[in-house]
Write a structure and sequence with these properties.
9 helices; 294 residues; 2 domains; alpha/beta
């Protein structure tokens, strides 16, 4: 019997979308990462990054940890750092939803809010200055191989096993890019014909959790060779699909999940057969104070 909360990370449900598509020969499966104990896909890398760093001796209970986050990674890190008795400061833009800030604080983390106009890049700059000048240690989800390796060890194998090796396309929103890098690496090892599809916002859209990074902020773990195709979605498409997921499929998720599923439907328009798996990366209750569900 698994009786420790960290044993509940992963092995999330893979459910078929019944209403969103009607195309014989094509199946759309949604991986419900909101079922992780911390409520998002980020439980996987947060656990692997902290556990691996402790095992290597890179950090200990005296280490002052810091990380810039747009939300879900911070919640996962706060939960897991608390379980290991570690001190962590999480830095995020001041326009982040209050549910995220309150959840991190509930888990015992210190939360620092940076000006909204400088975005997550400003949060990253603040964290890096604390590392350079005050002896903090950054988890560094954007450049930490333990991020993508979490998905290589768990997300990829789960998708392969739960589809009995029949998956043909994998669709994932791209933020830190850990999910798509690790899952791609594993799935391509099983069958190099599986198509890996990344999701980005178009040039004028802002979608929490999905980014088109400026070159100087591009995650160091990102390898473009592991992504076969990038599909862009608009803010409006992401919002509308998030609402449709709740209303038509009973899946209450955040906006980046809506973006991923909107991209999956664009992909499905171009294929005649296949098993498409898309990541639904968190739960919608994290966005109730925003205008997402107005």
């Amino acid at each position: 019997m698994n009786n420790f909360i960290l044993d509940q990370i992963g092995n999330t449900p893979l459910v078929e979308a019944k209403k969103l598509i009607n195309k014989p020969g094509v199946t759309l499966l949604l991986k419900l990462e909101g079922n992780n104990p911390g409520g998002s896909v980020k439980d996987r890398p947060a656990y692997n990054m902290i556990k691996s760093a402790l095992e290597r001796g890179d950090i200990n209970k005296d280490t002052k940890l810091i990380e810039a986050t747009s939300g879900n990674t911070g919640i996962a890190l706060a939960m897991i750092a608390g379980l290991y008795g570690l001190n962590i400061e999480l830095v995020m833009p001041e326009n982040s939803t209050k549910e995220r800030v309150q959840t991190m604080r509930a888990y015992g983390a210190k939360v620092t809010l940076t000006p909204a106009q400088v975005g997550i890049e400003g949060s990253r700059d603040y964290a890096e200055s604390k590392v350079a000048n005050e002896g903090y240690v950054m988890i560094n989800q954007f450049g930490n191989d333990d991020n993508w390796k979490a998905h290589y060890k768990t997300t990829g194998p789960e998708i392969w096993n739960d589809t009995n090796g029949k998956v043909t396309h994998f669709v994932s929103s791209m933020g830190t890019t850990g999910t798509i890098m690790g899952t791609s690496t594993y799935l391509k090892e099983q069958n190099s014909d599986i198509q890996i599809v990344g999701v980005q916002p178009d040039d004028v859209s802002k979608i929490p959790g999905i980014r088109k990074w400026p070159k100087e902020y591009l995650p160091k773990i990102f390898n473009p060779d592991k992504v076969d195709q990038i599909i862009e979605v608009t803010e409006t498409e992401a919002i509308q699909m998030t609402k449709r997921l709740a209303k038509e499929e009973g899946i209450f998720a955040g906006m980046s999940s809506g973006g991923a599923v909107a991209a999956a439907l664009k992909l499905i328009e171009t294929i005649d057969s296949g098993v498409v798996v898309a990541i639904v990366c968190d739960r919608g209750d994290r966005y109730l104070s925003s205008d997402l569900f107005e």
